[in-house]
Each structure stands twice: as structure tokens, then as C-alpha cells.
Amino acid sequence: MQNVLLLVDVQNLYYTARHAYGRHIDYNALWARATRGRRVVKALAYAIDRGDEKQRQFQNILRGIGFEVKLKPFIQRADGSAKGDWDVGITLDAVKHAPAVDVVVLASGDGDFALLADTLRLEHGVEVEIYGVPSLTAGALMQSATRFVPLEDDLLL
């Protein structure tokens, strides 16, 4: 049985699924597909905390599925732009836990993770599965993965 680390970039999945399909990710189905026949070493969902009740309910749903939810405060800059990505945190956790797993599942379409996927495969010897919305997942990330799993159909609500 393979050991798996599951890392979910919640903001990326929310916006890409909404843009491409006008739908949401089915996190129960994502968990079931990514962990089938595998032992979960760690499952982390990375989100931005805006402090509203609906978001807290969603975070509790993720916890109920089995994810540890990591939150970062939403930061609105003076110029009106916003900050709130988890790229560095996801990368650090992936490298930290890589020695204990056979597979890293990263649910994100962010091309910044291509270097991480290459590093995990080539330097840590782990398989890397990328779950992403096909039309909005960076080509470099798909090429860096051991496997690409499209987020569509049965993985959507």
C-alpha cells in the first residue's frame, strides 16, 4: 500500500472550477479518488480566512472529510489588490513530508508548483499526481507531474 500526502490549494481550485465550469469541487470525491488503496500520511487543505460564517462551515466540512485546514488571513493592500496565497507553505510541507510518502497529490493548477513537482520526483523519488482543471492548469505543471488527473465530471458538485 502506498503512503500518500494530500495537499489542496483551496483558493486555486475554487476559482478555476468556478471559471471553467461555474461549479464547485466535490472534496469528498477528490479525497476518495486521491486516497483509494493508499494510506494517508497527512492531508492538508490551504485556505484564506476572511472570517465569514459560510467559509467557517466549509472549513469544518473539509475537517470532517479528514483534512487539516491551514488558514492564512486575507490581506487587502492599500492599492486595492489582495494577497493570500499559500505557495511557500505548500512547498515547505511537501518537502518536509516527502521522505515519509510514496506519492504526493497536489490539487492545484498553479504553474509555480512545476519546480516543486520536479524536485519531489527527481530528488525525493516520489510520484507526483496533479489534480487540476484541465483548461486552467499550467502546462509546465502537467508535464512535471507523474500523473495528471483532470478535475471534471464526477469530481465536481
Explain briefly what this protein structure is.
With about 160 residues, the protein is an alpha/beta fold.
Primary descriptors:
157 residues, alpha/beta, six-stranded parallel β-sheet, 8 strands, 29% strand, globular
- The number of helices is 6
Q: For the report, how would you describe the main beta sheet?
A: 6 strands, parallel
Q: Radius of gyration in whole Å, from Cα? A: 15 Å
Structural class: alpha/beta
Strands across the major sheet, in which order? Answer: 3-2-1-6-7-8
| Order of helical and strand elements | EHHEHEEEHEHEHE
Principal-axes geometry comes out as: globular
The chain-level mean pLDDT equals 93
Secondary structure blueprint with pairings:
Layout: E1 2-9, H1 10-21, H2 27-35, E2 38-49, H3 53-65, E3 68-73, E4 75-76, E5 82-83, H4 87-97, E6 103-107, H5 114-124, E7 127-132, H6 139-144, E8 147-150
Parallel strand pairs: 1-2, 1-6, 2-3, 6-7, 7-8
Antiparallel strand pairs: 4-5
